[in-house]
Input
Amino acid sequence: MGGDWSVLVINGLVFVLGASVGSFLNVVIYRLPAGLSLLRPPSRCPSCLTRLKPYDNVPVIGWLWLRGRCRYCALPIAPRYPMVEFLSGCLFWLTFFICGVSLKTPGYWVFISWLLALAFIDLDTMTLPNPLTQSGVILGLMFQALLGWGTGSWTGLAHGVVSGFGAAVLGIWVFDLIRLIGSLAFGQTAMGGGDAKLAAMIGAWLGVKLMLLSSFLACFVGALIGGGGILLGFLGRRQPIPFGPYLVLGAGLAMFWGPQMLEIYWRWLGF
Output
């Protein structure tokens, strides 16, 4: 019985950690594109600019307790704030559930944080900020180096860095090629340069195979939703849409279930 309670507490703490990180990600998503400091001023209401109390900032619960309105001016607080916190908490828990107590767990928590920030910034601004994609590539290479070092040899460390770097370069090449072909085919810019950098970041973290799988899943889901939106009249044929969220979705699926997907695919081909 005590063991069951300890497992429940640990899982709850993991979720709270993820939701707390999600609270800070809301700050990053709002302030980074605007060129504002991530640390100062402290959290405040976006409407009346009143500094929030610590109990107003409790992830998810704070928004529910206030019924989605500012305590001071009573104006609505966007439901996306608790949504990002809840999503981050769930993804942290899912990572812990799948990877357990291993080096991959804290590493993937960092990766997830970068992915969530980039996805929502792209939805808001149609941009993928260089500070996030570039730092994400560096952190991904460091993660690969740590995984390689975990094998107990310098060879493993070097292999991790080289494979991560190669996957990052390939990600840039693949999406630069897609952007070139799309621009020639449609007579307009088909994809932003930030998407190639995001693909490079995914490659640095996940390697060549899972980066390519992420890209395929992103293109498939993007084509499905984009095509459906055009058919239903929600989107225009030349209306630009952010591709970053699809890449982030593909990366998440590949990170958690990529090896199983590839195994099913190769088995289907008869290999």
Q: What stands out?
A: The chain is about 70% helix and 0% strand. The chain has two domains: 1-101, 104-271. Residues 104-271 form one domain. Helices lie at 2-31, 61-65, 80-99, 104-125, 130-149, 154-186, 193-231, 244-269.
